[in-house]
Structure formats: structure tokens, C-alpha cells
């Protein structure tokens, strides 16, 4: 898997004329999506909490509490 990822990366880096959305020859779009570099989604806690100090997250039918402490740390509890 690692070799395939490096090969795809090398192909993309050596062929700048290809549009970013194109899939290298011989690969399915699904494989190319999994081999693409990870791009994290960043959301600020203050945007989620809307000036509060906690939010509730529902994940797979369970509720979790994410709260901000006075020391600037986050605590996640079930």
C-alpha cells in the first residue's frame, strides 16, 4: 500500500499539466481518494460552543460531553 501511495504521489508531482481532480491512469477514483494526502478539517471550539464552555456530541447513538477547562484543556466524557 505504501509503494502505491508513493507512486501516485510521484506521478502527480511529475505531471503538473494534469488537473487536480483527474485520476492517474489505471486507477479507480475510489482508490485515488484513499491514497490522497489527509486534509484535516479544523473547527474552533468557540465556534462549536458559541461562547459557552461545553458541547454535547451524539456519536453512534451515544452522547458525549466536550468541555473546556479554565486551564485551556478539553475534557471528553461519556
TrEMBL record:
InterPro entries: Hemin_uptake_protein_HemP (IPR019600). Pfam families: hemP. This is Hemin uptake protein hemP. It comes from Stieleria varia.
Amino acid at each position: 500500500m505504501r509503494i502505491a501511495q508513493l507512486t501516485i504521489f510521484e506521478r502527480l508531482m511529475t505531471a503538473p499539466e494534469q488537473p487536480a481532480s483527474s485520476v492517474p491512469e489505471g486507477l479507480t477514483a475510489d482508490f485515488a481518494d484513499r491514497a490522497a494526502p489527509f486534509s484535516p478539517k479544523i473547527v474552533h471550539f468557540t465556534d462549536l460552543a458559541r461562547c459557552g464552555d461545553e458541547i454535547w456530541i451524539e456519536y453512534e447513538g451515544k452522547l458525549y460531553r466536550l468541555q473546556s477547562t479554565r486551564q485551556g484543556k478539553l475534557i471528553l466524557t461519556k
